[in-house]
Every structure is written in structure tokens, then in C-alpha cells.
Amino acid sequence: MSDPFVVVGADAAGLSAASKFRREAPERDVIVFEMGRWISYAYCGMPYFIEGRIERLSNLLSLSPSDVDERGIDLRRGHKVVAVDPDAKRVTVETTDGETFEQPYGDLLVATGGRATLGPFDVRGLDGAFTLHSMDAAAAIDAYIADPAAYDPARADVDAVDRDRVDYNAALPAPETAAIVGGGYVGVEMAEALVGRGLDVHLFQRSDRLLPPFGEAVGERVAEELTDRGVTVHTGTPVEALVGDDRIEAVAFADGDGGTGDVDGGSDGTGGDGDLGANGDDRGRLPVDLAIVGVGIRPNTELLEGTDVALGEGGAIRTDEYGRTTLPDVYAAGDCATAIHAVTGEEAWMPLGLTANRAGRAVGATVAGDRSPVGEIAGTAAVKAFDMEAGRVGLVEDEAAVAAGFDPVRETVTAGSRSGYYPGAEPTDVTLVADRDSGRLIGGSIVGPDRAAIRIDTLATALEADMTVPEVERLDLAYAPPFSPVWDPVLVAAKVLNGTLEE
Amino acid sequence: MSDPFVVVGADAAGLSAASKFRREAPERDVIVFEMGRWISYAYCGMPYFIEGRIERLSNLLSLSPSDVDERGIDLRRGHKVVAVDPDAKRVTVETTDGETFEQPYGDLLVATGGRATLGPFDVRGLDGAFTLHSMDAAAAIDAYIADPAAYDPARADVDAVDRDRVDYNAALPAPETAAIVGGGYVGVEMAEALVGRGLDVHLFQRSDRLLPPFGEAVGERVAEELTDRGVTVHTGTPVEALVGDDRIEAVAFADGDGGTGDVDGGSDGTGGDGDLGANGDDRGRLPVDLAIVGVGIRPNTELLEGTDVALGEGGAIRTDEYGRTTLPDVYAAGDCATAIHAVTGEEAWMPLGLTANRAGRAVGATVAGDRSPVGEIAGTAAVKAFDMEAGRVGLVEDEAAVAAGFDPVRETVTAGSRSGYYPGAEPTDVTLVADRDSGRLIGGSIVGPDRAAIRIDTLATALEADMTVPEVERLDLAYAPPFSPVWDPVLVAAKVLNGTLEE
Fold this sequence. Notes:
The structure is a homodimer of 503-residue chains.
Chain A: E1 5-8, H1 12-24, E2 30-34, H2 46-51, H3 65-70, E3 74-77, E4 79-85, E5 90-95, E6 100-104, E7 107-110, E8 114-116, E9 129-131, H4 135-145, H5 163-171, E10 177-181, H6 185-196, E11 200-204, H7 216-228, E12 232-234, E13 239-244, E14 248-254, E15 283-287, E16 290-293, E17 297-299, E18 330-332, E19 339-340, E20 347-348, H8 353-367, E21 381-385, E22 388-394, H9 398-403, E23 408-416, E24 427-435, E25 441-448, H10 456-464, H11 469-473, H12 489-502
């Protein structure tokens, strides 16, 4: 056990593990290899930086390299781990200086994260086309949106930033019309961000509603809110290509089935006229000078390709309740790893921030000798779209519930967020999903403009406690006119779903 | 079973029971006797009416008598049930016209509620001195505060209102300085309401902090908020008398030990100078022209005094899991009845709105033949003080925990309500209390200005699920920068308390 704890990746999972390990096992060494220059940044904060709500890129950094040094962690940026030899218990490391060396490990944590999937869209080499999965991308988008004369370089105030890329984008003419490809979190949050920057924003979603994992009620209300705020929402409208030679000129899309926005081939009044699909077929074309692709992420597992490690859901590295992979003394945590789902008890892959932090911390404790479960995940998530808030947890969609062996029954109710007589009461939609046979709550979502998102934690807790719908109906939740009516919307939903279950 | 279901009391519990029964057992009669003129009003909304945030008294009514009629419920206002004969299964009823009659029942629900306790303070006959436990009191206070020339009689727009009392109070000179006696919910909410009406407000609390059942952290932050908003908070300062002949002239109080406000004998700048305790002892005196006494409520159980019904905690009517009293076919629900506490499994008396509604509804179903538990109570409560929000659940204070046989361990943490970089993140104090031996969560409180109150429902759910602190620490709660940091304040508190438990 004299060999060090080696961590690959210096973001949420990796640094949580290294920090926890450092505190618990001060006698052992811990080395963190990070192939890039960035560490410990808030991925989820990037849309708000681009929006301008957050002033400096540095605000998104949780820890600086010197913070990490001070914790007694041997952090080596610009060090890419390219191979793992689980028999010899060592990794091969390449530095940005071109050196290669072997590093023995006692325990290894793979915390390599994920990266944006591009689908058919190659944003590389096309000015004005971006994905949003790195701080350099966030800085570049921010610079690109700004008027060249008005860009403040102090916005990207971190040494690690790709300054050439920022400068290059800052010098390009400011865009006026943006297409966002993908109606998930990133898409919805970027829509708000770009409206905040004064752009004419079009949000394209392949399927017939936004935020599919949040269920129908959330998708509808978020689409309404975006539309009310000036976003043109194109649901059921797959973008097929980013058009342009050096700079993005347009997005080409299959004509959709309606949805909540104008989707009839670019005839939506914002420069689209005259640019309808040239072939007279069912394709449309919208001229844009900014395109952001947010169609998903996938786990970075290439490091273990030479080993016989087992992969699982989503192609992520299979891990057990302690974050152990199928290789001895090799752990994985964060966006590159699977986890156990609280409802199904089965493997799942849901790359989310708390999951990464929590699993990293648990692995750090376990490697230090204090065996700690990484915890189950419930897929709890929240999202903001202007004044609309939404949360989801568990198995919201029928497909997921059926695939897990449940017979899902669902109800959606609309109830007031406060006592009806108290100003500011807002309609809040609660969807609850239960298993017909057992009556167990297996998923839910909440959407509304008044404190709706945080209410999802109530459902997450009920779900992790394996509560049935009758048990949820009898929960003693808080009542106070400014915050909740006598029957909280969650209780109303449970009452209605309980009635359906009893039929 | 041909005899009707008789309900005594037409507020939350009574009308919930009658309505549920009516739907479930359409073939049986249901009669609701209400001694007064008011039915189904929102007690918790009264401070907001007085504040002026709610325009009309009628806004606080959930159901009108005609609504109740339309539901097929035989509602008889002005009918006071004065005796119960459980052997003969009949009640004696007196009408406001002076008639008396016997009414047989098949099942009886006592839903007589509670009433304000006065302590040593007799507000009757003293102009400008009030308790707040009826709609007539709310209307009278509202009228009293108004400038006689400016009072809008349409504020009290309900036929049932005691118009003479309203008119009398409206004609009195408007007050300038108010003393609120009691720093519980009513006191805190009334302090905000009276500041909203432009009064100079003094809040007197016997013990050394406000809102004792919410714990220390809540008491302190609410006191700070009130002080910041101009309320003079006198903690540790028992009011000993309301002074005045026809109209309130002053409150006399024992000199306190400091607390957050000026408590040194009325020398707080607002007309108090020169009115210090005349005897040179430790009494103070504050001239006021409005006093509101909110020192608690007690259950109305007089109706059953002639029977051998068992009373329990707080002198309330003892009930079992179905709301049954110790008398055959006699139920009790709402503020007059005990309930089972979710943490202790023992009898408790906590008069709260949801408890009444839920128990009433359950009794209605049970009497109709669908046996339904009334549900356990966790003492979940929330309160607003200007921009400060707080919630509490379970056993927060050591005394309560020890009395229930627990060995309480507690931690209070202050954590951000949002990601630190996201504007609007506010310090949120979470207190968790656990039992040392079992590690079980037995209580908690949350206070802060950003969505703090509604978060208490997460703790309420965890507590009702008998979760341990390690289980709470591993909850998959939502993370999204506008609503919660990666580690929600609840998770931070669980982590810290867990560390303490492991010591």
C-alpha cells in the first residue's frame, strides 16, 4: 500500500476523491493527473456566464490549482493518462511536453468525465458553431456573441483559458440569430442565456417536446415560457445539417409537425423568408450566425479500452456500490461511470453534478480505508427557464418504467403553489408515476414559476424511501399561506393518483 | 345506521369530514352544527388580511354556506351542541333563537377547534386590545387600525361579520404604537402585518427567543429580520399586564435580559421615555394604543365534559389512528383532538391546518365505511417574516427529544441556497437533530430568505420515512445553480451531523 492513490481527471469526482482521501489518509500519497489546463469548474454554470448573469469566468471555478496544492494533493495538469495496466498496477502518462512515463498505483480512480456528442454535426472549423462542454467553449461563445468593439477581455479572466480562441471569436462580427440544436438542459438554459444577450433565438428539438426526461407537463410549460419570452421553439424538428463554409450560415432541418413554435420551413419572419427548402421537399432552412449544439454527452472511457473492464449502461464504466470497476483496485466515478438507480436497483448512467461529487468523495473515503457506499441515484434534476422552474426524479416516462418491469400509472394535477387568497399563488403541475401493483411511487415531476423546482426534493426523498402513493398522500407537509396551500400540490397529486390506483 | 352522521363544528375538520362522507355515502344523512355564523375560514390568512395584502375578508372563506348546501350537507349555523349522550347516541342542541332539541346520531364527529388562550390578559372590554382567533377579531383589528376617515367598510364584506363591532372599531382613533404579546406564529406574522400598516411595532416574547418550537437558529434569524424591518423585539420579556381603563394605554412587562431588541424598560425611543416602571423595580411600561395577544390556543373540549371521554396531551380529546375517541362511534378531529406523532409514535397535540383537514377527511371516509387512517403528524410548519422564511419538523428542541426517550445530537450549518456564483444565493441555516444511538433523524429546521421554508418538506418526508442521518446524507437531491448548490444545505447539514455521530 505504499504506492499512491492515482486519480485521472481533476474535476468534480476526481478532486472530491483526492480531497477526501487526503484528509482521511494523510500518510499516503495522492496524485491527480489532468490532461488539460482546467480543473474543478462548474459545468452547470456556463450558460449563466454566457448570459452575462455571472461576470467573470473565474467565478465558475471551485478550486484553483494552488488551492489543490494547499490541500497536499499532487496535481499535475497537462498530464494525459493514456493506458492502464491493471496487472502491473501502473498507468502510462504523456505530458504536453511530449514525455512519457509509467506511474505505479496502489488504487486508481478513473474520473475522466464525459464530452459533448456531436451527432452528425461537426462544429469544428466552422466559425459560430459550438458545443458547450468546456470552459474554453464558454469563453469563446461569450466572446463571439459580443460586439467586437465592446468585448471585455476581463470576462475570460483565467490563465488556463485558450486566449487565442477567445481573441479570434471576439474579433468576429456579433451574431443576431441563433439556432440551438437540442431541447435538453443545455438547450433550454442556452435559450434563456442568448435571449439575455439580445439574440433572436430558435430552439430546435428532434422529438415532440422539450426536456423529454421531465415528462409532458414540464415540456409543455417550459415551451410556453420560452415562447412567451420570444424564443421560437421548433419541436418535432430534427436539425439535419449545419450549413456554412467558414462560418455558420444556416441550419437545415426536417419540417416538423408543429409543436409550440413556428416550424414551417423558416417562414417565421426572422430572416427566414426566401430561404425555404430549395428542393420543395419537406426540409427547411433558417439562416443563423450562431449555432450551439447540445444533443447530449457521452462517457470518456477510452483510457480503459486496452483492458477487459466491463462497460455498462450508456457505454459508461460499470461500477458497484463502492464505485469499484471490474478491475482490481480500479474505481470509476462521475460522468464516465454507471451508478445504481434508487428505484430500479439496476445499473443506470445519469451524468449529474451531485452524483460525481458524491461518488468521488465516497471513493476517496473507501480507498482511505473507510468503506463508503457511493449512494444510489434517483435522476433528480432541476432546470430553470426564465421564470419557470421544473424538477424531475425517478422514472417519469412510461418507456423507462416499463423497461424496469413496472406497470406505470400516472396522474398530473395543477394546483396552487400558495393559498389561493395569498398573492403570488401560481399554478403548479405535479406529475406522479406509480407502479400499479405495489402502489409504489416510482417517479415524478413538478413545474411552475413559484418555488416549484425545489419541491422535487420531497419526491426524491419519498422515492428513495420506497414510499407508496398512500404514504405520500399522508405526508405531513408544511402549510403556510405564502408557501403552500393546506394541501400542498404534491399531496393533491398523491390524492388523485391514489384514487386512480384504487379504481 | 339510519341515524345521521352528526358533525359539530363547520371549519376545516368538520366540513372536510362532511364533504368526504357526502361523496362516499350518498344514502346517509349528514348534519353539521355550527354554533356561530362563520364557516370554513382560513385562520392562517388573517394576518395577511390585516396587513392589507389581501383585500377582502371574503377572500379568506373557502366555502360559503350555499356551497355547503350544494354539496348536499345539512349545515345549521347558530346551532350550539351543548351535550352529548353517548349511551343514547344523541346530542342536545341549542339554537340562537333559544330553542333546544335532541338530535340522534349514528356517528358523531367533534370538530370544535380551539380558541385563543388569554393567559393573564383580559382583552375583553378594553378597546384596542385583541386576540386573533376569529374572523370577527380580524375584521375588528383591521377597522381599528384604519384612520376613521379612511376605513373602507367593503373590506369586511361578509354577511356573517359582526358589523357593530367593526363599525365601533372603525370609529376609534387610529393607533400608532402596537404591542404584540407572544412571539409565536401569530406574533411574528402580526408584526409584519402591523409594520405593513405603518405602525411602530413592539414584539414581546416571554422566553429568550422567538418561535421556540423552530429552534435557536430560526429564532435568531427571524428576530434579526424583524429588527431590520423596524420591529422592536423584546425577548426574555414577559408582559405582565395590559394597562388601561376603557382603551389600552400601555403594556407593563418584567425587564428582560436583553435579546435582540431594546428591552430596558421602555426607553426605546418610541414614547417609552418617562414611563419606566414607577416603582423603581424591574418592571417596564410601554405606552401603546394597540395590543394583540397571541400566547397560544387551547382545545375546545367542553362539549364532552359530561361524558367519560379520555383527554390526552394538551387537554385535547384523545383519538386513535382512525380519529376515534374513547366513546363508541364518537370521533374527534382538528384543533380539539390529539394525533399520533410520526417520530415518537406517541400522542401529541399540535393544532395545525393540514392536520385538521386531513383528519376530517379521513374520519368522513371511515364513517362512510372506507376505514382510513388520519395519518401521523410530524409537526411540520412554516412561517414567513418579511423576506425571511423558516420551516420546522419533528423534535427540534432538546426537551421534546429527551421527553420522548431520545438522546438528541444536533448540528446547525449555514450553507448557500444556490451555487455560490449564481446571483441570489443566500445563507441558509439547517439544523438537524438525530438520536445518538440509532442515528435516526428526529427533527430539523431551515431558515433563510431564498426558498428556505419549502425545503422543510424534504426533512418531513425523510423523518416520516424513519431515515437515518447517513441515509439523508446520501439522498439524491436536485442540483441546479439557480436553486441549489451541488451539495444542498440539507445534505451539508447531514454530512456534518453524521461526522458528529461518528465521533
